[in-house]
Amino acid sequence: MKSITHFLYITRHKLTARRYLLWLLPAVLYLGLTSCDTPEKVMKSPDINYKLKVATDWYNKKQYFKCIPVFEELMGLMKGQRSTEDIYFMYCMANYKQADYMIAAYHFHNFVVTYPLSEKAEEAAFMTAMSNERLSPKYELDQTYTTKAIDAFQSFINQYPQSSRLDTANQMITSLRHKLEKKAWSNAELYYRTENYKAAAVSFENLLVQFPDIENTERILFMVVKSYSKYAENSIVLKKVDRYHSVISSYKNFVYKFPSSKYLAEASKYENDAHYYSTEAAYDKAYAYIPEEREKYLTVAIRECNEQLQYIKDPDRIKKTDETIQKCYLGIVRTNYELAEEVGDTNAVRREAKKRDYYDRTIKSYYTFVDKYKDGKYIKEAEKVYALASEKIGKATTDGQK
Questions:
Q1: How far apart are alpha carbons 356 and 363 in whole angstroms?
Q2: Other beta carbons within 10 Å of 244
Q3: pLDDT tops 50 at residue 18
Q4: Pairing with 227, which of 6, 53, 140, 385 sits 20 to 30 Å away (CA)?
């Protein structure tokens, strides 16, 4: 009896072990096969389900470099037959995890376009922005992807205003904009260091337009004044007056916002210089024009000097500006005399009429000068020109009477 019981016990356990082996063998076989599978081998299989299972297993095991080509093939094979939504999303995410951010950005965006009603559309939209954010380089380099990331995050916020990712998106935008600020600031500073003062001034001004909440606005406004001052100083004579006016205008803006600035003393110097040098520039500018137009621009220079005099504080500069005004009046006298002497009309009657007209204007401009500066520094020079013009008119009158 004992031997029979023992026989039955052994038989039962052998059968159990056999069943276990029958269950274990396929699993071991599958693991053995998949453990040595490569994307190339899997892609050669005609079994779509098998490909999907292996690729999904690789994805779950974070073996993204293996699953990406298989997912890519499956999307082509299953197109028009079965939904590839889940496969496509895993493919997008695998590229992101594999640090192929450019590819990921493209496909996440395409996923949103292809499956706008998908439950994963929100995440895909967010990951589009995240992919571009990962492509954003150091602030010294080109910031194209930084801008793309900001646009993508803003688009996400607009499209999903109730998203749980909203705070993250806003934080990312703030961080990325700060990078653009640093880039723009760096560019402006570089322009100034390389003496491209116009670009520096415009760049510093644009900083305040593009980033109204930027830190250190005080220094930026000061650098606008400083850049315009250097720009005016190095400009051609025809442009100096307008550019000194830019210094004055930018200084007013600076001092209005920061009346107690630590840069005030230096900025005030640039402003004081601009008031004075604009008068000299206006005088020089008049002589950059042909004689026929010079009187017009000397008159403009007189007006510029009178306007700036009220702001010039240094006594020596006040004196020199007054002398510049005198030189302008003297210049008008001289210019009319020179024009009279240079009339080249071939018709004798017409030529003499023109000469007489310029001599008359010489005398009139002399009287205007004398009325204002009877004891001026240049009165003797003006008297010499007046005497010559009077002599020529007298001679012309005598010749005409003969």
A1: 11
A2: 30
A3: no
A4: 140
